[in-house]
């Protein structure tokens, strides 16, 4: 039985080229499909049908939009830096695709008479490649905002950079938990290590931190501050049009697919079939081409959550967002990493009985609880007379006014007498409205 | 060993060719109708605010602070990865060392928190 890395090392060049083209096509098709899916699902969430004209169920809508973009005028503002403006979309698109290279789509299969693995490369530093690619993508965003020579894109790109690097730390720390269990940075090894149980169960804290930071990392709602439409027009790509804009769009959606695929790989067992299916016939559904189905299904689960979040949550304020990243996710992951490392070391130390381990854990939990109880509560304003003032010295009205209780609703008589109906129709409507407003 | 990276380079080349082609072809496919206002910086229709020739306007200093904090914690992360890979081999020694390391960084973190470096306003 050869390892995945050895299998891939035996690939002839033509097979590598086929895989490269397949991965590229996967990225582009997923993008087109995701844009359609997002518009349809958000449409349904907002009680409207969404695009349904172009092709069956409107499936070709995003393709039509892409073609339309290609035939739009390519505008470069006079103040823009020529070369950086030109390079920025390329810099943001390439790493998005590159990150796909280490994602395992499935186990070994026979492809065109050649035994190989459904993965482009299996590097011993697989996870680092993905982190590197996601960091490189920031360059595209920052340079695009800088090169546009316009205030909105500059602010949008700065916000985006600060956001991505802040959440990159939380993301990286959550991945450390996974590596502590798998002892390998190679993505295929991580999937193989999840044969006994998905890390989603073993490392719930890491999973939650990763799930939050992957939304922050991709600048998606509710963390879509870099392109907050109501504040910054369009964010870093305000000045971009035509295919350059399309490349930014492509990069954003490919990044979404990449972080979802990575979440699947790290926490949901990668291409492994979910439990009841994995037991069928000694795991026949974990071999051959079946795993692609599970992999894509799990990836779509995360992508759906992305859309769901966008349909549900309002955008955060920037300071709230940074506070969540720096003051919640980072310390939580650091403590979690130490806990995981401690439990690992304890389990692997010979000559310690289970009872002693449990005592150790009990002591640890008690120490944590005591520490949590000793932490001071949130400070409350004890000065009742204190009146806050704004920057210009104007007293600020209290912001925590409670809404007065709404008066009880008055019902209109069920069937008014025809003789009493002497009001004009407009007046009746107004009276209706008045009673209707009684209850908030 | 470097042989393993060849497919990665191929994917880089394909993605790069696609991106380069899109960006380079855009001016030739689309129409071109001159309009001075179109080439101005977009500010919702008002006259664009004057900007330095290169590099945009001023930016809040908080972004620099975030960048420096990022470097601090990213380097911490860099040390945690090799530890995580070989945690079992290092055993108790590794655990104590990494706990000390995290505690040291924790002091820096607490200091930054107390000084308000993590607040955004």
TrEMBL record, chain A:
It is found in: Cell membrane; Membrane. InterPro entries: NADH_UbQ_OxRdtase_su1/FPO, NADH_UbQ_OxRdtase_su1_CS. GO terms for cellular component: plasma membrane. The keyword Translocase applies. It comes from the Bacteria. Residues 431-440 have a biased composition (Basic and acidic residues). Keywords: Cell membrane, Membrane, NAD, Oxidoreductase, Quinone, Translocase, Transmembrane, Transmembrane helix, Ubiquinone. It is a multi-pass membrane protein. Residues 392-440 are annotated as: Disordered. The chain crosses the membrane at residues 12-37, 83-103, 123-143, 164-183, 198-216, 245-268, 288-308, 328-346, 358-375. GO terms for molecular function: NADH dehydrogenase activity; oxidoreductase activity, acting on NAD(P)H, quinone or similar compound as acceptor; quinone binding. Pfam families: NADHdh. It is an enzyme of class 7 (translocase). GO terms for biological process: aerobic respiration. PANTHER family: NADH DEHYDROGENASE SUBUNIT 1 (PTHR11432), NADH-UBIQUINONE OXIDOREDUCTASE CHAIN 1 (PTHR11432:SF3). NDH-1 is composed of 14 different subunits. Subunits NuoA, H, J, K, L, M, N constitute the membrane sector of the complex. NDH-1 shuttles electrons from NADH, via FMN and iron-sulfur (Fe-S) centers, to quinones in the respiratory chain. The immediate electron acceptor for the enzyme in this species is believed to be ubiquinone. Couples the redox reaction to proton translocation (for every two electrons transferred, four hydrogen ions are translocated across the cytoplasmic membrane), and thus conserves the redox energy in a proton gradient. This subunit may bind ubiquinone. This is NADH-quinone oxidoreductase subunit H.
UniProtKB/TrEMBL annotation, chain B:
Its EC number is 7.1.1.-. One of its GO terms (molecular function) is NADH dehydrogenase (ubiquinone) activity. The gene is nuoA. Signal peptide: none annotated. It catalyses: a quinone + NADH + 5 H(+)(in) = a quinol + NAD(+) + 4 H(+)(out). It is found in: Cell membrane; Membrane. It is an enzyme of class 7 (translocase). It is a multi-pass membrane protein. This is NADH-quinone oxidoreductase subunit A. HAMAP family: NDH1_NuoA. Belongs to the complex I subunit 3 family. Keywords: Cell membrane, Membrane, NAD, Oxidoreductase, Quinone, Translocase, Transmembrane, Transmembrane helix, Transport. It comes from Solihabitans fulvus. GO terms for cellular component: NADH dehydrogenase complex; plasma membrane. NDH-1 shuttles electrons from NADH, via FMN and iron-sulfur (Fe-S) centers, to quinones in the respiratory chain. The immediate electron acceptor for the enzyme in this species is believed to be a menaquinone. Couples the redox reaction to proton translocation (for every two electrons transferred, four hydrogen ions are translocated across the cytoplasmic membrane), and thus conserves the redox energy in a proton gradient. Its main location: membrane. NDH-1 is composed of 14 different subunits. Subunits NuoA, H, J, K, L, M, N constitute the membrane sector of the complex. The chain crosses the membrane at residues 61-83, 90-112.
């Amino acid at each position: 039985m050869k390892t995945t890395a050895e299998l891939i090392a035996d690939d002839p060049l033509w097979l590598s080229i086929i895989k490269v083209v397949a991965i590229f096509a996967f990225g582009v098709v997923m993008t087109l499909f995701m844009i359609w899916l997002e518009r349809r699902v958000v449409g349904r969430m907002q009680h409207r049908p969404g695009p349904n004209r172009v092709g069956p169920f409107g499936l070709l809508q995003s393709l039509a939009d892409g073609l339309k973009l290609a035939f739009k005028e390519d505008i470069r503002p006079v103040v823009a830096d020529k070369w950086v403006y030109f390079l920025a979309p390329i810099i943001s698109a390439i790493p998005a695709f590159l990150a796909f290279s280490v994602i395992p789509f499935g186990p070994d299969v026979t492809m065109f008479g050649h035994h190989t693995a459904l993965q482009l490369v299996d590097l011993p530093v697989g996870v680092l490649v993905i982190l590197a690619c996601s960091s490189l993508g920031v360059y595209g965003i920052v340079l695009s905002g800088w090169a546009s020579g316009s205030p909105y894109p500059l602010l949008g790109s700065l916000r985006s950079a600060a956001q991505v690097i802040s959440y990159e730390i939380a993301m990286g720390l959550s991945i450390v938990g996974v590596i502590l269990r798998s002892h390998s940075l190679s993505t295929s090894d991580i999937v193989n290590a999840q044969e006994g149980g998905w890390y989603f169960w073993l490392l719930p804290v890491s999973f939650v931190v990763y799930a939050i930071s992957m939304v922050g990392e991709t600048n998606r709602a509710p963390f879509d501050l870099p392109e907050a439409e109501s504040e910054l027009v369009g964010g870093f790509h305000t000045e971009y049009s035509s295919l350059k804009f399309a490349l930014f769009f492509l990069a954003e959606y490919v990044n979404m697919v990449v972080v979802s695929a990575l979440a699947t790989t790290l926490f949901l067992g990668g291409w492994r079939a979910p439990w009841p299916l994995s037991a069928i016939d000694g795991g026949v559904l974990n071999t051959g081409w079946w795993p692609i189905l599970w992999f894509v299904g799990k990836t779509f689960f995360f992508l759906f959550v992305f859309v769901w979040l966008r349909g549900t949550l309002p955008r955060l304020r920037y300071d709230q967002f940074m506070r969540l990243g720096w003051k919640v996710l980072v310390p939580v992951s650091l403590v979690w990493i130490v806990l995981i490392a401690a439990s690992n070391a304890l389990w692997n130390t010979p000559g310690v009985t289970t009872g002693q381990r449990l005592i150790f854990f009990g002591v640890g939990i008690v120490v944590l609880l005591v520490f949590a109880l000793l932490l001071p509560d949130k400070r409350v304003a004890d000065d009742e007379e204190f009146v806050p003032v704004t920057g210009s010295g104007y007293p600020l009205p209290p912001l925590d006014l409670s809404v007065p209780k709404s008066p009880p609703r008055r019902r209109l008589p069920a069937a008014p007498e025809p003789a009493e109906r002497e009001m004009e129709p407009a007046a009746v409507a107004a009276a209706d409205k008045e009673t209707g407003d009684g209850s908030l | 060993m470097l042989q393993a990276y060849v497919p990665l380079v191929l994917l880089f080349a394909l993605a790069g060719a696609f991106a380069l082609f899109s960006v380079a072809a855009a001016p030739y496919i689309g129409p071109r109708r001159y309009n001075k206002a179109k080439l101005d910086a977009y500010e919702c229709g008002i006259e664009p605010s004057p900007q330095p020739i290169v590099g945009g306007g001023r930016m809040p200093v908080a972004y620099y602070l975030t960048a420096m904090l990022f470097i601090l914690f990213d380097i911490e992360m860099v040390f945690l990865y090799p530890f995580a890979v070989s945690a079992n081999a290092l055993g108790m020694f590794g655990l104590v060392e990494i706990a000390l390391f995290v505690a040291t960084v924790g002091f820096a973190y607490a200091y930054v928190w107390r000084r308000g470096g993590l607040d955004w306003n």
